[in-house]
Write a structure and sequence with these properties.
Blueprint (H helix, E strand, L loop, with lengths): L6 E5 L6 H11 L4 E2 L2 E3 L13 E3 L2 H9 L3 E7 L2 E6 H9 L4 E4 L2 H9 L6 E7 L3 H11 L4 H15 L7 E4 L3 H18 L6 H10 L4
Parallel strand pairs: 1-7, 1-8, 2-7, 3-4, 8-9
Antiparallel strand pairs: 3-6, 5-6
Helix pairs in contact: 1-7, 5-6
The structure holds adenosine-5'-triphosphate (ATP) and the ligand Nc1nc2c(ncn2[C@@H]2O[C@H](COP(=O)(O)O)[C@@H](O)[C@H]2O)c(=O)[nH]1.
The site of ligand LQESDW3C has 16 residues, from strand 5, strand 6 and helix 4.
Enzyme class: transferase
GO cellular component, one term: cytosol
Protein name: Guanylate kinase
Length: 210
């Protein structure tokens, strides 16, 4: 295979800024595909079916898992979340890179899958737990008890930071976005065969050198 897409995994404690960084990366490179997850969580105001998530009831979600349609799945904050497999495989075959916003369990499962050698993983840390809580509150999307539950789980998520290839402390959003772009640029250069340089090099060597 001359060109196969990379799988770029973003994980962090809830509220550290993954979705914001993912949006920045996709504005920078419109060829990137965002992996839309399925979840049993109720939609937040403004969340759109098929855009932010595929919102499914628990029975439908479990049936998708049983049919082998999920690349990974996990329970996070009392809800089920999972990555539909087929769109990821289609994107890889088409040579498109895919961006994932998944928790540490999803990160572990994708790395352990048959696609694991295509993974680049990035962990996003908040500058402090106080700032993490401030971000969750200022996002204005979750009830106080939901925020308290997410803060309680934040140390659990953070304890997996060393499983990742890269770690970004998301203090300044512009600097963090630049760091992310640099990672993707370097990783693409580091994998010349995977990003499709093979045919180019073959043509180069067949050129008449005069
Ligand atoms: N560097 C930053 N400085 C200040 N605010 C930030 C920064 N990065 C993100 N935010 C803000 O923090 C809030 C949480 O960010 P975001 O929704 O991207 O987090 P997340 O990690 O995707 O959360 P979740 O895991 O719950 O989906 C948002 O209101 C966002 O605008
Ligand atoms: N293992 C997976 N985790 C996922 C997936 N999609 C999202 N997530 C993680 O869930 C939490 C909460 O997300 P929220 O949208 O309810 O704030 C967050 O850490 C996400 O990274 C998935 O498909 N698999």
């Amino acid at each position: 295979m001359d060109r196969s897409g990379l799988l770029i995994i973003l994980s962090s404690p809830s509220g550290a800024g993954k979705s914001t960084l993912a949006r920045r990366l996709m504005e920078w490179d419109s060829s990137l595909r965002f992996s839309v997850s399925a979840t049993t969580r109720k939609p937040r105001p403004g969340e759109v079916e098929g855009d932010h998530y595929y919102f499914r009831d628990p029975d439908t979600f479990r049936a998708m898992v049983a049919a082998g349609n999920m690349l990974e799945h996990a329970e996070v904050f009392g809800n089920l979340y999972g990555t539909p497999r087929e769109p990821v495989e289609d994107a890889m075959r088409a040579g498109r890179d895919t961006l994932f916003d998944v928790d540490w369990q999803g990160g572990q499962q994708i790395r352990a899958s048959a696609l694991g050698n295509h993974v680049i993983s990035i962990f996003v840390l908040p500058p402090s737990l106080a700032e993490l809580e401030r971000r969750l509150i200022s996002r204005g999307q979750d009830a106080p008890e939901v925020i308290a539950g997410r803060m309680q789980k934040s140390r659990d998520e953070i304890s997996h930071w060393a499983e990742y290839d890269y770690v970004i402390v998301n203090e300044d959003i512009d600097q963090s976005a630049e760091a992310l772009k640099s990672i993707l640029t370097a990783e693409r250069l580091r994998r010349p065969r995977q990003v499709g340089l093979g045919p180019f090099v073959r043509r180069l060597m067949e050129e008449d050198g005069r």
